[in-house]
Fold these 2 entries.
Entry 1:
Amino acid sequence: MLSNTLPRLLMTVLVTLQLVGCASTAQRDGVVLELSADGRRLDVSYRFARATTAMVFARNPDDSRSAHWRTASADFEIVREDGKEWVRRVDGGRFSTAELIVPAAYRPLPKDYAAFSPFSDGGLLIHSGRFQVCPVGARKDGEDCEGPWSMRIRVPTDVHILLSGNRYERSADWLDTSDGTKIYLGSAQPAADSSFIQVVDPGLPLEISGPMSESLPKIMAYFEQKLPPLVRRPMLYASYDPDYAHGYGHQGGTLPDQIFMHFYGSVWRETDATGGTAEDILWFFAHEASHLFQHGVSGTRDASWIHEGSAEAFAYLALESLGLVPTAYLDERRRRSVEACREALGKGPLAEAADRGEFSGYYDCGLLMFLAVDNAIRTRSGERQDLSSFWSALIAGNASDEPWTSPKFLSYATPWVGKDLTQTLLTLVTDKHDDPGELLAGLESR
Ligand SMILES: [Zn+2]
C-alpha cells in the first residue's frame, strides 16, 4: 500500500510547490485537488505559508470527513471536536503541508452542498467549499475561518474542467470565496443557448431530460423578461448516479451563476417511477432560477419566507404564465401549501420556524404570502404591475445587500400592497395563531 501511495504523494507535493511558486509574492495558503486516473478519488494537498499545529475546515455540517476521508500519512489524523472537523499531526507537532485522500462519492450533507455529484458517464461535479480550511494557532479556536483560498484543480488528460463558465484542460486555478463553487470534471461537452450553459447527464431517462431541455430555456427567458438581467450566463448541471446504493431521490440548489440538480438511485431508470416527477422538477428549476434573478435580495434567517416564499411564488407564476404544467398541478401545490402552512403556524410564529428546525414553513406560508402580494399589486395597479415589478424595485434599492427583516420588508411593501395586507402578513410572521386556518383563508381570498 505504501508503495502505491509514495509516488503519488511526491507528485502532489511537487504540484503544491508549483502552485505556491506561482503565488509566491502573495504567500497565500494553497489547496490542490487532484483527480485520480479512475475518477474515483481526489488527492487533496494543503500548504500553509506558516507552519501550524492544526487546520480546521470552514464548513462542518457533520462528521463524515473523519468517517470517510483518510490522511495520506499515518502521522496525521482527521478528528471531530467542538462541532468542527480538524486535521492535525498525531504527535501534536507543527506542519506546513498535509495530504488527504477523499473518495469521490455522493453523500448528502445536512444543510450543505454535497461534495461530489457523479454523472452516469463518469463525470463529476465537485463543491469547492468542502475543501476550504484554515490553519489555527497553538491555542486552537478555528473561529472566523474565512477565505479567500487559492485553489488549483488537476485532472487526467481525458477529462476537462468547467469552472465559472470557462473550459480548462489539465488544470485550473481560482480564488475560492464564501460558499465556494461547483466545478465539473468530465468529458461531456456543455450545451449552450443565449441564457445558460448546461451539462445534462446523458443517462437521465427521457421522461426527465425531455421536459427539462424543452422547458428550461423558456423559464429562463421568462425571468429575463420579468426581472433585471443576470451579469453572467449561469451554468446548469443535472447529474445522475444510478449506482447509488443507499436509496433514491434528488437534491439540488444554487450558488452564484449556478443551478444544480443531482438524481441518485437506479429507480429513476424505471419509467413509472418518474411519473408526475417532471412537473416537480420544472417547479424546482423555476424556484432555483428565480433565486438567481432575485439578485441577492433576501431576508434574515427568521425572515427566510422573503427569499424562499418569493421563489416559490415566482415558480408558480412562471409555470402558470408559460403553461408548462397543468393547472391542476398548481392548484394541488397551493392546496398542499395551505395545509402545511396551517400546520407550521399551529406550532408557533413563522419567525421562529427556523429555530424549531421547521424550515419548510417559509416555503409553504411564503408561497401563499407572495401570491397574495402579487394579487394585491396587480389589482391596485390595474394589471400594470405585479410581483416582478415590486422585486425589480427591491433590487434597484438594495445597494447595501443587507438581508431584510420582516417588519422592514413589510413596511417597504406597504405602498405596493396596502396596509391591510402588510398588517395581516406581519401578524402571520410574528404571532402565535390558535386558528391559522382563518388567517390563511383570508389570505387566499385576496
Ligand atoms: Zn430556495
Entry 2:
Amino acid sequence: MTTKLNIKICPSCGSKKINMVRRNWTGSFEGKEYKIPNLEYYECPDCLEKVYDREAMRQIQAHSPAFKRASKSKPARTTRAATSMKS
Ligand SMILES: [Zn+2]
C-alpha cells in the first residue's frame, strides 16, 4: 500500500492541469538559499501553486537550515509526551 498523494485538481485554483514535476528545487531561509536536487512535487501551470507530498516535505525538512536548528534546540520533545500519557 502506498501513501503517495495523487493530486488531480489544484487546491488553489481548481485547475485540472496540475501535475507531478521533478526539478531542482530552491528554497530560502533568512536570506540563505538551499537547494534540493530532483525534488518531486506537484505544480499547477495556471497559478503556479506548489503542493508537496509527505516525501517531498521530508526532503525539504532534511535540507532546510530552519528545521536543522529547531531539532537541535528542542531535545525534550519525547519527555513531554511521556508525562502527558500518565494523567
Ligand atoms: Zn492552480
